[in-house]
Fold each of these.
Amino acid sequence: MSGRSDIAECIRHSLERYFQDLDGEAASGIYDMVLRQMERPMLEVVMREAEGNQTRAADMLGMNRNTLRRKLTDHGMI
């Protein structure tokens, strides 16, 4: 599936640019930062594709509906 490698390449490129922009400053919390930055747009797109149906969106994401609701709440999306 080429979409997966395209996403990975975008993340790789963004992280490389992030380190360049740090210009020698120490980095910290990168793991949580990356997950948080990619999670909201993923949720937005999946919710749109599921036409707002949380059960369908949770199925698409491979998680249960309660977990999806928590993530949507965490991102201020509900």
Amino acid sequence: MSIDIDTARRVAHLARIAVKEQDLPALAGELSGILTFMEQLNEVDVTGIEPMTSVTPMRLKRRADVVTDGGQPGAVLSNAPDAREGFFAVPKVME
């Protein structure tokens, strides 16, 4: 697919890029090259190949999904300006 100068001008306008009139032919050539490369990629047979999330196979570290109290409720509540009965106390918002 070939991009003409008018299309390059429109793409630059839509992308909000200031391109001088004398630079439009070069931009059109670069955009045409990108589209040609994309057409080449579409010709590759990828049936049966799983998508990759990284170039190196890695698994994220996992931890057991266990509910805990954090083990330090006193230390956490010591930072609160007002705490009552083991909870943060906040001012009433609605009356």
